[in-house]
Amino acid sequence: MITITIDGKEIQTEPSKTIIEAAFEHGIYVPHFCWHPALSISGNCRMCLVEVEKMPKQVIACSTRCMDGMVVHVNSEKAVQAREAVMEFILINHPLDCPICDEAGECKLQDYAYHYSVGESRFDEEKGLKRKRVALGPRVLFDAERCISCSRCIRFCEDLAGYPELTFVERGDHVTIETFPGRQLENPYSMNVIDICPVGALTSRDFRFKARAWDMSETPGVCPGCARGCSMDMWVRQNEILRLTPRENQEVNNFWMCDRGRLESFRHVHEETRIEQPMLRKDGVQLAVGWDEALAAAASELRSWKGDTVAVIASPYDTCEDNFLAARFAREILTTQFLDILPHVEAGDQDEFLLREDKTPNSAGARIAGVTPVDDAHNLDSIVEGLQSGKIKAVVVSDVRAHEHAGFMQALGKAQFVVAIVSNASALTERADVVLSASTFAEKLGTFLNFEGQLQLLRPAVNTTENERWMGAFAMSRLDKFASEFDRWGRMKRYDARSAGRVFSLLAQLMGGKWGYDHPEDIFEEMAKRIEALHGLTYEGLGRWGVRLGSEQPGHLLPYKYSDVRP
Amino acid sequence: MEVRTQDKYTLTFWEKLYIPEILKGMKLTLEQMLKKKDTREYPEEKWVPPPSYRGAPVLVLERNGVERCVACGLCSRVCPALAIEVQAAETEHEKERYPELFEINMLRCIFCGFCEEVCPEEAIVMSPTYEMVFTRYEDAIFGKDKLLMSAEELAPRLEFLRSHR
């Protein structure tokens, strides 16, 4: 342990740490472009210049190690002057195109220009011209003029993703970023370079020009793409998710997210296949009906199939709360033991970084919530067998991707009565006698448990007719707050969907159940009482990053939260 | 309460004569008839506002038929009445972006001119248009078809903005 002083504050730290690391650990912000806590040190932007007493000139905080008795000034006159000079230098060739740049509003350079720049340029000459709109890969566009050559993207691909695809070419003010000959920026994590790019040089081809950062609301959520359950933010405008970005969570995904999760995991929320309201089969034709009618029809039919002639297929895409009520509905109301989930595994699509073979976000959660077959005679295989042999006659399915299981779907053809509680149309809903429109991960409150045992809270970002009354819990953009019913941007599309848990709860009540829950938090309270692993947990206690169940606590990359240290 | 009564006005001799007072009045009338008139016969005769006038905001259409707007959305952000909605899209032109949708709700607009002030491209300006009548709500929402106005038509305003920058 050594002692250093930063801006008059005495800090105990290790000699192996750099000044910037020591400062961030103690909540002192040092401006920086190229340094990132999860990447290797490059030291080329010079933005983190600080004054150290007894050193002949200013040093960069990101690659100067701490020494005992060091006295560092981040905000002394010399340090401020050095920063202003660096900002002026970086801005010499940076185009003034913030109005058409997607990064505007969340740009490090833009923010620093306000915080640490003099606000004037002495540069009269023409700015350097470089390539614009370069497709580095299928998902990322590059604007060489905006690039400040910090090399964060190069280091991310090389060090973390393990795909060396990018490099610097040329020298001096001609320096630019290029893919290696014959290569493209197309690794499964390529879009993370967009988030770490401190300027708008790297932008998403998918999100390009769709919305300005300040027009969207930002809701913390959990990616439903695989069993990792990366923490992410959902960006919504006019009740439509426009993009997902990873959120720092050192217990799950650090700062990263895979491209597939980012681009594909939310598409079904706004797809044309989305079921807009409940449907009921009458004389062989599916008709759109109201909730009361559909629920009553499902309940009255299910009443005649009680016991082991019914099976329930819960969903690993639904929350723990939904699955808890699915299990209670099966065991207490239908009195059947045929209860399981369908696996969705893509063998081989897994690596050490983030990707998992299990492409569902909550398989572990469904198990812990009670969707566990009592024995081998009541698991998925037995359910399929029972359907084939005609022993099981009615099925309730809440898995939105059940249609991907050919064997199960073929067996389902033999069932006499099928209830589907799903969000999107598929072969399953075509077969179903009653379709109850379910809400998606983006429209409900609940919890997901990842494969490592991290229990995280989901918050609703998209408005349905059901979750409207929780408007207080919604993140709202300026447009949401001030829209009147006459503004088109106020008349947003809302689906008449309910969470699967709510549907099970309503069905149970119609079939004589003595329980019913209005709000997911009530369900979780009940779960915390009944399930040992969840004892003592509350939504509030889950916080922003969730809670690790079990005794083994995760190791953290950093002893602090990078995004919490602010200037 | 004390009630005050006005004393009866007593006419002077000349006033009692009546004729001189009529002549006085006719002189005033004749004077006004020959003076320069300050009123105009609107709507037959239209008023042309000076370039400093803030009429309905419009989008400037360049000579080559392309709008100047790059759909940055700053006008939409600064608008205190939330009258402007912009949706950007990509274009092949060098400016990269263009407004796929640009709508101003004229019932929300308060003609403050903030949009014109914030625009980095001088693409939205306050036109001399002051006549706006709607009979349906939808008619009051101006899309690109109604908003685009040629740069020549807007020349006085653009000249005014340049001289007061």
User: Biggest sheet of chain A: strands, sense, closure?
Assistant: 7 strands, mixed
Compute the CA-based radius of gyration of chain A. 27 Å
**What is the structural class of chain A?**
alpha+beta
Q: What is the CATH fold-level name of the largest domain in chain A?
A: Rossmann fold
Tell me the strand percentage band of chain B.
15-25%
Instruction: Give the beta-strand count of chain B.
Output: 6
Strand content of chain A: 15-25%
As for the number of domains of chain A, it is 3
Classify the secondary structure makeup of chain B into a structural class: alpha+beta
Strand ordering within the main sheet of chain B: 4-1-6
**Span between termini of chain A:** 27 Å
Top-tier CATH class of the domain at 57-163 in chain B? Alpha Beta
| CATH fold field value of the domain at 57-163 in chain B | Alpha-Beta Plaits
Helix content of chain B: 25-40%
Total helices of chain B: the number is: 6
Largest interface: A-B, 19 and 21 residues
Judging by the overall fold, what is the CATH architecture of the domain at 57-163 in chain B?
A: 2-Layer Sandwich
In whole angstroms, how far apart are the ends of chain B? Answer: 65 Å
Most strands sheet of chain B: 3 strands, mixed
**N to C succession of SSEs of chain B:** HHEHEEHEEHEH
Write up what this structure looks like.
The complex is a heterodimer of chains A (567) and B (165). Chain A has 3 domains: 2-92, Ubiquitin-like (UB roll), CATH 3.10.20.740; 108-270, Alpha-Beta Plaits, CATH 3.30.70.20; 279-442 and 498-548, Rossmann fold (3-Layer(aba) Sandwich), CATH 3.40.50.740. Chain A has 17 helices and 23 strands. Chain A has helices at 19-25, 77-92, 108-116, 152-161, 192-196, 259-264, 267-270, 291-303, 320-333, 363-368, 380-389, 406-412, 427-431, 478-482, 500-510, 520-530, 539-542, and strands at 2-6, 9-13, 49-52, 59-60, 71-73, 134-135, 140-142, 166-169, 176-179, 202-204, 217-222, 231-237, 240-246, 279-282, 285-288, 310-314, 339-341, 394-397, 417-422, 434-437, 446-449, 454-458, 547-548. In chain A, strands 15-14-20-19-18-16-17 form a 7-stranded mixed beta sheet. In chain A, a hairpin with a 2-residue loop joins strand 14 (279-282) and strand 15. The two termini of chain A are 27 Å apart. Chain B contains 6 helices and 6 strands. In chain B, the strands form 2 sheets. In chain B, strands 4-1-6 form a 3-stranded mixed beta sheet. Chain B has a 3-stranded antiparallel beta sheet with strand order 2-3-5. Chain B has a domain at 57-163: Alpha-Beta Plaits. Chain B is α+β, with helices and mostly antiparallel strands and 165 residues long. In chain B, strand 2 (84-90) and strand 3 (97-105) form a beta hairpin. In chain B, 25% of the residues are buried. Classes of the chains: A alpha+beta (567), B alpha+beta (165). The interface between A and B is medium-sized, with 19 and 21 residues.
